[in-house]
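One such shown below:
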Amino acid sequence: MVEVFLLTTDPTSDKVGKITAWLSTLQVSFPHQLHLIDLRQQPFFKKHGEETLIIRVDEKQVVNPEDFERISLALGEAHKNANSPDYRPATSKDRLGLRERFSLWFSRHYLALINIILALYVFLPILAPVMMRLGQVEPAKRIYQLYRPLCHQLAYRSFFLFGEQAYYPQDVPTGSDRLSYSQISGNPSDDMQLASAFIGNESAGYKIALCQRDIAIYGSLLLFGLVFVFARKKYQPLPWWLWILLAIGPMGLDGVWQLVSQMQLSFLSWLPVHESTPFLRVLTGATFGWFTAWFGFPTVEESVRDERLRLEAKAAIERQTR
């Protein structure tokens, strides 16, 4: 017997009555067993807000449940399949498989997983100087080593904790009372290897294991992720061209100019040497992270939404037809 499942958050609505009447007229041509599944007790559909109406004919979901022709075609196809040797009874096909269960779990928790990973990624670099301050030198050094392949960790482009200043630039203006990187480290400012290896000391403080721009990027990614938890319905994916303009543009201008101008290429001798400032690094990093998250999080949400709706409907059927 072909199984038809009518899933709804409003079993008494006019739409449900109309579809039930249609299915009744199709009983003669396509005999079937109708199951009305009330979705009001399912947490996902409670939060969904909008009225939900789903029709599943055997294993297939009808694309437009308010289209009589589509329902009729789905029933006709199901009856053809019912006569094939590969036809499976409802008890086996209406249960979630292992892969579907994982997909459903992931679609429910993907946002929390991403936020936890981002939080750990941002928290550990900040933990490194804290551990140095507390005398836990070896665990702190392991964090610095862990992040070294992921970030240049140049001391003059990083923030410091527990020291005289929050940052120590390569150069300071003549007569300034601010300390430079060379003054607190004793290293030449143009040796990038030493600048990357320099962690700090008791008077200067200890650097965060991610540079200023990276800490701003991942911090703003995390901030958007936390905001998105509570306001995901308000955010549509940012258009790709706007993402390039708002995210790539400012950071590319600041970062690429800094990189290229310091390579001392003869054909770019006209380009002024540019060393970015902590303010610009944080600003461009934060805008890159925020608008990248605005582009990415809603896109992922849209990609999992339809599949989650299908799997949540199937899970509802499984729970109510055991």
